[in-house]
Amino acid sequence: MTKQSADYELLTTPDPRLRRKSTKVHEIDDEVRDIVAKMNRACIEWEKTHEHELSAAMAAPQLGFNRRIIVVREDMSDKANANFIALINPEVIKTEGKIDYDYEGCLSVPAIYGKVPRPSKARIKATLLDGAEVRLKPAGFLARTLLHEIDHLDGILFIDHIKDDPQAFYRLDDKGDLIPLDYEKHIKGNKALFPDDDEA
To answer: Which of 18, 108, 129, 130 sees the fewest Cβ atoms within 10 Å?
Structure first.
């Protein structure tokens, strides 16, 4: 499934392109800058139709671009701030700290949230759009967000981390509250979410 715009498409499960490993960016050229611009715009446009949700970040494969590019919101506490920072070829050097469980959602997995285990800290290196190399030490929600997006570059969705946990899946109601999902009814054996599952 895709959500079409004038010059991009937002891929959603079970589109097989979400499961492909992305290729490294060898040159930051006009094509890469154009992809980043589309990603920024897609985040903001999606947010306009999702009152209770924040578009914190995005990975290029979510728009069908098989490149190792992510964008992350500059200020996650301010929905009015529409600035995003692009990270090219982000790489997890190591993770550390305790394993925390917290809620995650995804533009490419509509209507589902999950309580996902992730390390509380990470060390990440990447290249900025201007070619500068950076080393980051994110913690808490920022670490979670970056690990989530880097997963996308390897064809991994957040639901893969919790697919066998009946208590981990939620939906967002009309008031913006998270409500537990019936695992047997909505998740288990769901080919739209897990197309390679042997279980019918």
So the answer is: 130
Please check whether residue 35 lies inside any domain of the structure. yes
The number of distinct structural domains making up the chain is 1
123-140 tens-digit pLDDT? 999 999 999 999 999 999
DSSP letters, 54-111, are ---EEEGGGGT--BSEEEEES-TT-TT---EEEEEEEEEEEEEEEEEEEEE--TTSTT
In a domain, 9, yes or no: yes
Give the strand pairing for 57-59 and 84-104. Answer: unpaired
List residues bridging with 71 in a β-sheet.
58, 86
14's CB contacts (< 8 A; 6+ apart) are 1, 191, 192, 193, 195
Instruction: Check: CB of residue 73 under 8 Å from CB of residue 55.
Output: yes
Which residue do the tokens 């079970």 mark?
A: 14
91 is catalytic: no
- 59-87 pLDDT, tens digit each: 999 999 999 999 999 988 877 888 999 99
Domain that holds residue 153: 2-187
Q: Which of 45, 74, 104, 149 is catalytic?
A: 149
Structural domain contains residue 193: no
